Structure formats: C-alpha cells, structure tokens
Amino acid sequence: MTMKSAHPTYDVYTAIADPTRRALLLRLSHEGERNVSELLEPFSISQPAVSKHLRILREAGLVRSRKKGRVRLYAVEARKLQEVHDWVSHFEKYWDDKLDALGEYLDKQKNSKRKT
C-alpha cells in the first residue's frame, strides 16, 4: 500500500507550463533574490496565489528559498532547466532541416524570377 503525499510533486514541465510561473522565473533570473511582496507588484493576483506559484516552482526544483529574518527570499535554481533544454534540443535538427529547405526553395524562386 502506498501513501500519497499531502502535496503533489511537480515536474519541471508542469511548473513552466503556467505563464505566471515563467514570468516569476524570468524576474528572479534578472533581479536576483526577492521576497513574495516584491514579486507581487507586476501581477494582478493575490499574495497567496504568488506563494502557491513559488511553491510549485520550488517543488519542481526551479526555485530555492531561504529565510532572512521574517521574510523568505526566493532565487532561481536554473540547473533543472537543463532538462528542458536537452529535450528541446532534440528538435533543433528538425527546424534546421526545415529552414534549410525553405532557404533552397526561396533561392530557386528568386533565380526563376531573374530568368523571366
């Protein structure tokens, strides 16, 4: 018999699927450590909602937190994003091939117009 955790564990893909969480990651990567109140400003959502997004990012390993006095500071833990990069890089060859084919097609179109 297995016991379910009180909180689901999120993987990196689930965590970055939400635009608010992606925006939080970008902001933390540009601005460094921030607390929830500082991160709340550009969003039109409540502090508990931002905290929930940060919890999901933390559970996915994309954000780390530490207590400083009475506040909790959050920072990006970008190492887990390597997993996404590795997965997406499998499709680079597909796009390179398609863009090369488009380039050849456009060159042929350009050359045929010059001849006419």
From TrEMBL:
Boundaries of every HTH arsR-type domain copy: 1-96
Pfam families: HTH_5 (PF01022)
Top-level taxon of origin: Bacteria
GO molecular function: DNA-binding transcription factor activity
Protein known as: Transcriptional repressor SdpR
Species of origin: Gimesia aquarii
Gene expressing this chain: sdpR_1
